[in-house]
User: Which sequence fits this backbone?
């Protein structure tokens, strides 16, 4: 690196970026954050798009993630990572999915989510997510996808602070 501002560059992923380019990128990022913050304040509604338990940090719902992805034009692509490929029997299992958010052919971000075929009630009792094994598998798969989608949305948009 040199100290001449025109020549000053940072190496990242085999690409040189000038200070001028970095300044432009930061200005764009600041404006994107302002737009996202205002959009979230104006559009996301408690108990529908996010929920909060006690004094905990608010948690995003799938509806909220869809609303955040909408102006970005992000579409989810799911990949099955782990778990059985059918839901026969009553033995508990875990399914893990990856969600990649794409804008056309461009990668925007990804997240991983998982779900159990059994849920734990407040009493500590573990019960099947659904009584029918086929419906249980489908519900568990959808819950894992939902978790991965929310994770990918937060990763792609850096909306966690809101």
Assistant:
């Amino acid at each position: 690196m040199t100290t001449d501002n025109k020549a000053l560059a940072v190496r990242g992923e085999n690409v040189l970026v000038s200070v001028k380019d970095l300044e432009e990128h930061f200005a764009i990022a600041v404006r994107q954050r302002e737009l996202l913050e205002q959009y979230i304040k104006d559009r996301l509604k408690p108990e529908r798009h996010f929920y909060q338990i006690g004094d905990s940090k608010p948690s995003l719902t799938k509806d909220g993630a869809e609303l955040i992805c909408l102006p970005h034009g992000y579409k989810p692509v799911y990949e099955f990572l782990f778990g059985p490929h059918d839901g026969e029997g009553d033995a508990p299992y875990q399914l893990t999915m990856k969600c990649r958010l794409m804008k056309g052919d461009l990668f925007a971000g990804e997240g991983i989510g998982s779900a159990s075929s059994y849920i734990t009630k407040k009493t500590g009792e573990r019960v099947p997510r659904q009584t029918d094994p086929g419906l249980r598998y489908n519900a568990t798969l959808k819950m894992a996808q939902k978790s991965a989608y929310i994770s990918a949305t937060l990763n792609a948009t850096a909306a966690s602070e809101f």
The longest strand covers residues 106-116. Strands lie at 9-12, 15-18, 50-51, 59-60, 75-82, 94-103, 106-116, 118-120, 126-128.
